[in-house]
TrEMBL record:
Organismal lineage: Bacteria, Bacillati, Actinomycetota, Actinomycetes, Bifidobacteriales
Identification of the protein by name: Restriction endonuclease, S subunit
A Pfam family reported for this protein in Swiss-Prot or TrEMBL: Methylase_S
Species in which this protein is naturally found: Bifidobacterium boum
Keywords, alphabetical: DNA-binding, Endonuclease, Hydrolase, Nuclease, Restriction system
GO biological process: DNA restriction-modification system
Domain Type I restriction modification DNA specificity residue range list: 46-183
PANTHER family according to UniProt: TYPE I RESTRICTION ENZYME MJAVIII SPECIFICITY SUBUNIT, TYPE-1 RESTRICTION ENZYME ECOKI SPECIFICITY PROTEIN
Family membership noted in the UniProt record: Belongs to the type-I restriction system S methylase family.
GO molecular function, one term: DNA binding
Taxonomic superkingdom: Bacteria
InterPro entries assigned: Restrct_endonuc_typeI_TRD, Restrct_endonuc_typeI_TRD_sf, Type-I_RS_S_subunit
Amino acid sequence: MSSKYSEVRIEDLIDEIAMGPFGSNIKAECFISHGVPVFNGSNLTGYTTNDDNLRFVSPEKAASLGNALASRGDVVVTHRGTLGQISYIPYDSQYEHYIISQSQFRVRCNKKVLPQYLVSYFHTREGQWKLLSNKTQTGVPALGRPTTSFRKLNIPLPPMETQRKIVKIVDSIREKIALNSRTNGYLAAQEPPPSKRRSHRT
């Protein structure tokens, strides 16, 4: 990928980059049964964020957290804990806005790059190596100066039409993997337990 296209610095491809709130800004008593959802690491397990096991804060609390408020199309990156996680909020997500956690930062792309392409690149072996290149070696796994170091990374940037084609291919592969997973799960559910298989043979 990188051999075909010129490399561009991330800071030239984004409009915003912002860290999550300090932990002291979201205490346990802030969580309510519904409102604005708050991400955690389990919501960044794939190319896109997921809406599993979300917790919520009130709209007023979300507004007070300012730049920690992410929107559809934003890219979310884990900078502490389970490093290497990077996902974008899909445009058909269940909620319009999300609060990122204290262990994440968010990125809003400009018109030069598709967020889907940015995320797909950082899911490659080369992209993961770059993303983790500023990993600290002591204590809890973390990226040193996360937003600053991320800004300075270079990525290969094809023309927009090529980005769209790459994203389409990646989406097609993801859909096939998801379909295979669902099919395997269905087949496993239909298979009788070992005891019944043995009795059937006899």
